[in-house]
Each structure stands twice: as C-alpha cells, then as structure tokens.
Amino acid sequence: MEVVRVLHMNGGVGESSYALNSLVQKKVLSMTKPITEAAITQLIMCSSSMAKTFCMAELGCSSGPNTLFVAMEFVKIVSQLCRKHGHDQLPEFQIHLNDLPGNDFNSIFKSLAHSFHAQLLQEMGAAGVGGSAPYCFLSGVPGSFYGRLFAAKSLHFVHSSYSLMWLSKVPERLEMNKENIYIASTSPASVINAYYEQFQRDFSTFLRCRSEEVVGGGKMVLTLLGRKSDSASSKECCYIWELLTLSLKEMVSQGLIEEEKLSSFNIPQYTPSLSEVKTEVEKEGSFSINSLEASEIRWAACGTSGFYAPEYSKKGDDGYNVAKCMRSVAEPLLVEQFGELVIDKLFENYRNILSDRMSKEDTKFINVTVSMTRKE
Amino acid sequence: MEVVRVLHMNGGVGESSYALNSLVQKKVLSMTKPITEAAITQLIMCSSSMAKTFCMAELGCSSGPNTLFVAMEFVKIVSQLCRKHGHDQLPEFQIHLNDLPGNDFNSIFKSLAHSFHAQLLQEMGAAGVGGSAPYCFLSGVPGSFYGRLFAAKSLHFVHSSYSLMWLSKVPERLEMNKENIYIASTSPASVINAYYEQFQRDFSTFLRCRSEEVVGGGKMVLTLLGRKSDSASSKECCYIWELLTLSLKEMVSQGLIEEEKLSSFNIPQYTPSLSEVKTEVEKEGSFSINSLEASEIRWAACGTSGFYAPEYSKKGDDGYNVAKCMRSVAEPLLVEQFGELVIDKLFENYRNILSDRMSKEDTKFINVTVSMTRKE
C-alpha cells in the first residue's frame, strides 16, 4: 500500500467526513493548549529580536474545525505579546497548512480560510490586541512530513496533533501478524520489532527534516497517539484496532471479505511510549525537550452530543460516535484494501462491538505530547 | 456578483475542464518565454549575493498543464546559472501557486505536484545541471491578488499570464450597457469609463500589494489579454464577447433566458492597451519597466489537433475548440447568472457563431506583456 497516496482523512463536510467527526481531536487540542501556549510565549520571550514575519506550520492539518485551531492561538498570543512590549506594528504571519496530497485542501480554502480571517478580526478585538488584525498569509503545503516540506530555517513554530503516529509505510516483515491489523496481544515479538523499527526510522527522519527548517530557538509541539506502558502490545494503545479486527473477522466469516485480504492488511501506525519518543529526540540531537507528558481521553469523548452537527450525533450512543470517528480517519485505507462495498457493514459491526465494550470497560486513548526547542 | 467567490476556471480533468482546454494559454506561455527567461536571468546576474532560497509566485495559476510551466523554467534557469558560476550547492526553491479559493487546488496537489518533481529530476539532467534536483517546495495560496498574499519582501520573481485582465468586481454604473456583456462597439462612453476606472483601481492595488512583497531588484512578468488599439471598444479585444452576446440573445429570443438576466450581466474583465498598463506602473512608482510589448495569437490556436487529449479535439473545427476554451474559463460566471441548464445550448450556439465568423475573418487575441523590476 502506498501510504502517501492512500492515507488521508475523509474530506468534505458530509456525514462521514473528518470535519464532522473530529471532536475527540478537538478536545485533545484543548487539553494540550497550555503546552502550546507556553511554547509560543517562550518563543517570543527568548527571541533576541522580533521577527517581521512569524512563520508556523501545522503538520497533518486535515480539513475541518481543527485545521486552524492552533494557528489562531499562535497569531493571538504573538500579537498580544508584541502589543504588551510596546511594538507599534504587528508582525506578519505566515501559516503553512500541511497534509498529504489526498487531503481536501479545496474545502479549507473555500470556507475555512475565509472564516479564519473573520474570526481573527473578532478575536483580536476581544483579546484586547486592538481593532486591527495583522496580515496572516495562509498556504497549503501538500506532502509527507517524512521529507523536507519548507525552506531552510524558515519556521518559528511547528505544531502537529494526532498525525505523527502514522508511519510513512506499512512495516515490512509482518507476515507473522496474520489476522491482526495492528500490534495485538497475540502479535509475536518480530512484529512488534518491525513496527518499532519503522517508527524509529520515520520519527528520526521527521526530526532531521524539521531541524533543517526550524530556526534556532524555534519551537515544536507534537501530540501523538501513544501509550503509558512500556509494552507496545498494551491494551491502552491496541484495543481500538483489535475491536476493528473483530469486525473484519466477522465479515470474513460471512464471506464478505477474503481471509487473504485480512491477513495481508496492517495499519501503518505506531503508538510510542514517552521514553521511545525521548530516545529518538535525544539520538537525533537537534532539539532539546522542554516537556514530555502523557494524557488520556475517554473514547466516549468522540461524541458528547453533536458538537458540530446535532443531526448526525446520536446522544448517548458512544459506540456510534467512536465508529464514526474511526471511519472518518481510516476509511481510505480500508477502501483501498477491501473495496467500498464492505464499509457500511464493517462499521455497523464495529459500532455494535464498541458499544458493548464501552458499556463494560473504561476505554481511553493515551496522548503523548512533547514540546521542544531547536538548539541554536 | 461576488467575483472572488464565483470566478474560477473549470476544475478537474473532464471534458469541460480548463486543464483540457487551455492550449491557447499554453502557447502564449511559450511565446512569452524569452521575456520570462530574460527576467529570470537578469534577476540572478544583477544580484549582489546569491539567495539561499529563491521564491517565486505564479498568480492565477489555475489547475492543469500550465500551472507549473513557468515554475519549471524558473528552477532550471536559476540552477543552471548557479552551476555556471561555480556554486557547489544549489539554492532551495519556494514556489507559491496562487489562485482564487474556488480553484481546484486538490487536482494540482494530487497529480501536478508529483509530476513536477519527476519532470524536474529529468530536466535537470537534460539541461546539464547535474543529476540531482534541488529542493522545490510547492504551496497553494488561495486568495485574490488584489490584496496582500505573501509576507513582506519574500518574493524574488512574480509571474502571471492570462489572469490580470480579470477585475476584482464588475464595475458599477453599467446600466447603460444593456444587452452587451462587455464593452462593445455600441457601448456608451460612460460604460467604457466605468470599466477603465475599475481597471485603474485594481491594477494599481495589484502593483502596490506586490511592491510590498517583492524584494528590491526582484522581477515581475505579467501577460494580460489586451489590445493594440487606443480604443477600449476595439474589435480586437471585444469581439470574442460580442459573439457570446449573440448566443445569449438567441437564447433570450427562444425564451430560454430572461431578458432582464442578460441586461444585468457584465463580464468582470478589462483588456488594456500598452499605454494604459504603462501609465499605471509609472503612477504607482515602485517598479521600473524593462519591456512592454504586444503580441497576437489566432483564436484558432485554441485547438490545433488535440494537444492534450486527442479524443476531445475535433480537428479542423475551430469554433468547437474556441467555444470549449471559453467555456472552461467563463462557465462558473455564466452558471451563476443564468443557471446550469442553459450552458450546453449556449455553447452550442456560440460554437456555430464562432465557426461561421472564423471561416470568414482573421480573428486574434492580443496579449500585452510587461516585464518589470522592483526598484531598490
């Protein structure tokens, strides 16, 4: 599977779109906001001179209400600090929105970009930054963040949330993973190693590329799906995929999916521990870690009564909401392997399995957030 | 009509897409290539020091084979000159692709960006620039070029072809233009003035915005649809729209279009003379003109036997090709005013009118190309 081509969140604003089913990702952005704010504040306070243009990149921006969430914070905080320090003129802002080429950039450009500028003007007044909003230049940057995306020393702040657990490719040597689609409690050590080694290669490549693009003293805040446990097969990171596997197996037993298709399918993702993230950052050596912490958010946070579109959210049906969230994320990968026809049924099964388990267990996603500074 | 929202070339790669019907625009790019090359060469030769990142913007890039045509020239020429002058390391390139938010950026990102990098690698070898292609960072920048789009002093080279004749809005006070949809031989002086004044406002705004974004010594090459004549109602620039008016009138007489809809419709375009362009550049004052010239290209150049997709091009049927070209450009504007249902019939009529006239007359588009340098 060619991940760069296939992987992307569901576009548009329809029922299965990521835009309408990314509430849990939004909540994680709110949870990690203090870390982001601290990084941005430190960026400005430690700068010896004020840049004329501040440049940030949102990596894995997708398309929807989360796309410009941190960009808005960035512009507000920097502007407030500039005013506070008596700068007459606000700096200009360059906001790069990056995702893989299959991302729905048209949707961002047609509606989000417009509403961003309107909201900015409103927020700048409310935040006491004066009536005028600064120039904010938005651009869409298609491509994999496992390669260079921006000019050398051009970025002041890099942000990414719920993107970097995606690998550049499905690891090799996963034959032994049989009917699992991700690391599972039954996965042999060789499979876990194959996944971990791919993560190490990808994450160090990511750090090396960003080290060329971020200015000395620049900041980077990354949140990944991860785990607290040392064990990569821990339930806290694998369970969500194990339950999808159950749904796929049900389809196999009904003859709707070929067994061979299931055994050759593996999700290009890795959910690292805090220490695995720390090890790679220290090994690459260009960034120093300011903070590294885990947080958790309940699967049920995928729902909570129609935050974006009441008509699509069935209050109280947690399985429904989690299934929709996972569909908006994984549908393109699943369609590539199993075809479009099985998708509705697959997620109907998945929803039932999720509802059952969530009513009996306390199910959570673990987030790993690392805040770093580019060494001078 | 809200031009920023409505105006865009037809997206995708279907039969009516701009991508498949922009052969005449491609030929104009080839015709003006020596001017572009001279500007890029001069940019490098006159620089006191070599930039580490060269940044260019293609304004009104649309989506199709022309989108990255000049960007490719830019990267090749600059790289060749760097090698020639013994620079070990090639600079990095930042290519901004700008168009209005309705442009099909997804198509650019999904296929063109990929093929650009592949072609670049090939061309760099062929052009004797050594085997390795330099880093080229592509970004999509949505928005009107009648406002700021890029950070201050961030651009080395700006290019635009067949875009700047589009105005930011339909001029006011066009009530007297009745059933004409553009300046026509029957348009009163007040209508011509209204159009000209809108052009003056827009073009000077454009120059002021770019003057902030282009570095001292930076270059700008613009090609617009225009005219050689002093008269704005000259047939050389108005005839193409007058014939579309005939088709619209035919639809009115058949009861397919309301007369009121026709009389309230005017195309947001102005086709300036050389001296009108010169006047605005000198008035604004930030740029000095290196060259200013008119060229012409026959309407028949819209076709010439299926350059891109043989199956869609009917050899020898010039009216067919011109109608398709005009449809790929003007369809969104016409749909907004007259609805989707009339479009097929409208362009069928138009094609017949065009075929008839083109068989009897020597019909041409006039291009105005101006090459400028940002004063230091």
TrEMBL record, chains A, B:
<keyword id="KW-0808">Transferase</keyword>
<dbReference type="Pfam" id="PF03492">
    <property type="entry name" value="Methyltransf_7"/>
</dbReference>
<dbReference type="GO" id="GO:0008168">
    <property type="term" value="F:methyltransferase activity"/>
</dbReference>
<keyword id="KW-0489">Methyltransferase</keyword>
<dbReference type="InterPro" id="IPR042086">
    <property type="entry name" value="MeTrfase_capping"/>
</dbReference>
<keyword id="KW-0479">Metal-binding</keyword>
<dbReference type="InterPro" id="IPR029063">
    <property type="entry name" value="SAM-dependent_MTases_sf"/>
</dbReference>
<keyword id="KW-0460">Magnesium</keyword>
<dbReference type="GO" id="GO:0046872">
    <property type="term" value="F:metal ion binding"/>
</dbReference>
<protein>
    <submittedName>
        <fullName>Salicylate carboxymethyltransferase</fullName>
    </submittedName>
</protein>
<dbReference type="InterPro" id="IPR005299">
    <property type="entry name" value="MeTrfase_7"/>
</dbReference>
<dbReference type="GO" id="GO:0032259">
    <property type="term" value="P:methylation"/>
</dbReference>
<comment type="similarity">
    <text>Belongs to the methyltransferase superfamily. Type-7 methyltransferase family.</text>
</comment>
